[in-house]
Amino acid sequence: MEVFEPFLAGIDNPDHRDRVEEVFNWVKTRFPNLMPKIAWNQPMFTDHDTFIIGFSVAKQHMAVAPEEAGIHRFSEEIVQAGYDHTKGLMRIRWDRQVDFALLERMIEFNILDKQDCSTFWRK
């Protein structure tokens, strides 16, 4: 996914870069209809020009942003997976494994919930 190469190149820690690249590749393989995109300097995936899921990195974690509706819908599962969250994103500490099943449910939820959405963000 060439679109994410500059973002990945900006991640100094090679282990963190590998983890993020693994997640991006997993999303693209599992959901081939989603389009990778950089907007607001953040990597994300879209469906019919509407936001599905976005990512960012920090020193202690990778952040996953499925919009507030996604966090609200999965808040208990996020905590059960050992992650913390705000109203707009969940944080996966670098020393934790990625719960790909949870990530898959979040993406599937957004794809279905936003199938008739004509705007980038939910209103």
Task: Give a short synopsis of this structure.
The chain has 123 residues and is α+β, with helices and mostly antiparallel strands.
List keywords for this structure.
alpha+beta; 6 strands; six-stranded antiparallel sheet; single chain; about 120 residues
Could you characterize what this model shows?
It is a single chain. This protein has helices at residues 5-9, 14-30, 67-80, 100-113, and strands at residues 35-39, 42-47, 50-57, 61-65, 84-85, 90-93. With 123 residues, it is α+β, with helices and mostly antiparallel strands. The protein has a six-stranded antiparallel sheet. The longest helix has 17 residues, at 14-30. The protein is globular.
Layout of helices and strands, plus pairs?
Layout: H1 5-9, H2 14-30, E1 35-39, E2 42-47, E3 50-57, E4 61-65, H3 67-80, E5 84-85, E6 90-93, H4 100-113
Number of strands: 6
β-strand percent reads 15-25%
Helix content percent band: 40-55%
Distance between the termini: 30 Å
pLDDT averaged over residues: 96
Strand order of the largest sheet: 1-2-3-4-6-5
